[in-house]
Amino acid sequence: MANLFEQNRTYVLGDTELDLIGDREKLAQWRHKSMGPPYYKLGRKIVYLGADLNAWAEAHKTDPSKAGKS
């Protein structure tokens, strides 16, 4: 698996790297709907771990060559 995010880094809202998966509003919608990548809420701060972001991205990977095949 290729890592889109640094494994050992923490990301907070406003980090431009998070724009790869969604803007600030989209991430907020996902959190409200209990969707999206895992996160920590520390006081008023939202923190994402790079390892969690990579695992979430990998779980949502689509391989067009395998679409519709069983």
What does this structure look like?
By secondary structure, the chain is α+β, with helices and mostly antiparallel strands. The protein has a domain at 10-56. The protein is 27% helix and 16% strand. The protein has helices at residues 24-32, 50-59; strands at 10-12, 40-42, 45-49. It has a 3-stranded antiparallel beta sheet with strand order 1-3-2. A hairpin with a 2-residue loop joins strand 2 (40-42) and strand 3. It is globular, with a radius of gyration of 13 Å. It starts with 9 loop residues before the first strand and ends in an 11-residue tail after the last helix. This is MerR family transcriptional regulator. It comes from Roseobacter insulae.
- Radius of gyration, rounded? 13 Å
Q: Helix amount, in percent? A: 25-40%
* Class by alpha and beta content: alpha+beta
Number of helices: 2
Q: Which term fits the overall shape?
A: globular
* Strand coverage percent: 15-25%
Which residues sit in consecutive blocks of at least 5 with pLDDT less than 50? none
DSSP strand count: 3
Give, in order, the helices and strands: EHEEH
**Major sheet: size, sense and barrel closure?**
3 strands, antiparallel
State the strand order across the main sheet.
1-3-2
Mean pLDDT: 93
Distance between the termini: 22 Å
